[in-house]
Amino acid sequence: MRLALWLLGALLLGGIVHLATVLVLPTLASQDAYARVSAIAPVNAVIAVPPPTPEKAVMPFMDPAFAMSVCRYDLSRGALKFSVPISQAYTSVSFYTRSDVAYYAINDRAAGRRVIELDLMTAAQRADLPENEEITAADRLIVTSPTNTGLIVIRALVPEEGWLASARGALAAAQCRLQ
């Protein structure tokens, strides 16, 4: 009986240490996606991300079937105007905080247009917007960022090698600028 209690205590302590480690390590990581992108991307500008290789990828979990671009944003000086034309196959846009928490995503099918356009701002900036009865929610998509800094990741599917130039062209036309 005494041995069983010791084993149960050891298992419980091991589980607590494991959970604490899993929860704390992401906050201690120095080479997260934001830090990696900061080395190659200026603030409030869209840049193409080099395709992943078996030895190196700029961001974690990159899929070689997608062409990618990224915008590292900073909303401390104002709201951001974002637009990207959709590619032939599939286009998606994902928004992440500085600490790699995804908070919004949209794809070309949900946008229903040839261009995904939106305004990105903090809650305080959104509260400062004047009420305009002529502009409805259908006319203007506003995304509220929980933090001042973060990443916008744009992906365009490349189902065949011949579509690569078209996908990269759509991503090259993306804009991420202060209003």
What does this protein look like?
This protein has helices at 2-28, 33-38, 108-111, 123-127, 164-172, and strands at 46-49, 66-74, 80-85, 91-97, 102-107, 115-122, 142-145, 149-157, 175-178. It is an alpha+beta fold and 179 residues long. It has 2 domains: 1-29; 33-178, Immunoglobulin-like (Sandwich). Helices cover 28% and strands 32% of the residues. It contains 5 helices and 9 strands.
Percentage of residues in helical conformation: 25-40%
Please give the count of helices.
Answer: 5
* Major sheet size, sense and barrel closure: 5 strands, antiparallel
Instruction: List low-pLDDT spans.
Output: none
* Average of pLDDT: 88
Structural class: alpha+beta
CATH architecture of the largest domain: Sandwich
Keywords:
5-stranded antiparallel β-sheet, single chain, 179 residues, 28% helix, 4-stranded mixed β-sheet, alpha+beta, 9 strands
Describe the structure in brief:
28% of the residues lie in helices and 32% in strands. With 179 residues, the protein is an alpha+beta fold.
Helices and strands, with pairings:
Elements lengths: L1 H27 L4 H6 L7 E4 L16 E9 L5 E6 L5 E7 L4 E6 H4 L3 E8 H5 L14 E4 L3 E9 L6 H9 L2 E4 L1
Parallel strand pairs: 6-7
Antiparallel strand pairs: 1-2, 2-8, 3-6, 3-9, 4-5, 4-8
